[in-house]
Design goal:
By secondary structure, the protein is mainly alpha-helical. The chain folds into 2 domains: 3-112, no CATH class; 122-195, no CATH class. Helices cover 61% and strands 3% of the residues. A hairpin with an 8-residue loop joins strand 1 (3-5) and strand 2 (14-16). The protein starts with a strand and ends with a helix. The chain binds zinc ion (ZN). Residues 92, 94, 96, 103, 105-106 line the site of zinc ion (ZN). Zinc ion binds at residues 92, 94, 96, 103, 105-106.
């Protein structure tokens, strides 16, 4: 069982690995790397067969290159395992919090079969992320209780110019959706706080 240091901000809980965990992660990264190669080779062949019934020699060469097994793979796995170890100590930021990129921490946790933000939807995750953000430079980090208060007191109902092309009806629906996501974030954070 890996060690997890739960933080007041759930998006930055740290996952710490001992030597056995690191070795297990290394093998999981290697399996993923080999699978990526197989998927790459499969894609080359599949693409080639879309427009003809045979696979040209050049494509076969490319596919075989994807399946090449060399010592360079282990060096790459070493590097990627180190990146994963860093990501496990980092912050959740990506699709889990509605940012337009995949979350490296989620990916690393998934490899180990753990999830430090289990049950948190991405829209609620975005609210959780914003609740811990302070606009005041150098302000101390918020506690879970403070973040919950921020979300309780947040009011998204003022229609700014950005939304001027929305009819009142569309705007009301949007605000209702946001309020639902905000409440989901509050509920999730309260459960998280109770377990801290
Ligand atoms: Zn994440």
């Amino acid at each position: 069982m890996v060690e997890i240091i739960w933080h007041q901000n759930p998006l930055r809980s740290e996952v710490l690995l001992n030597d056995n965990d690191k070795q297990l992660l290394w093998h999981k990264v290697k399996i993923e790397e080999l699978l990526n190669g197989m998927c790459g080779a499969h894609m080359y062949i599949q693409d080639a067969l879309k427009s003809r019934w045979w696979v040209p020699a050049g494509i076969i060469k490319k596919a075989l290159k994807e399946l090449d097994y060399t010592d360079a793979i282990d060096a790459e796995v070493d590097r990627m395992t180190e990146v994963c170890i860093q990501d496990l100590r980092g912050w959740h930021m990506g699709d889990c919090t509605c940012f337009a990129n995949s979350c490296a921490k989620c990916h690393a946790e998934h490899m180990l079969g753990i999830d430090t933000i289990k049950g948190l939807g991405k829209h609620a995750g975005s609210y959780v992320s914003s609740a811990f953000d302070s606009t005041v430079l150098g302000a101390p980090e918020r506690t879970t209780a403070e973040a919950i208060d921020v979300l309780i007191n947040r009011d998204d109902s003022e229609k700014t110019d950005t939304w001027s092309n929305y009819s009142d009806e569309q705007w009301d629906k949007l605000v209702a959706r946001w309020n639902g996501e905000r409440k989901e974030a509050i509920k999730w954070l309260k459960v998280y706080q109770a377990n801290l």
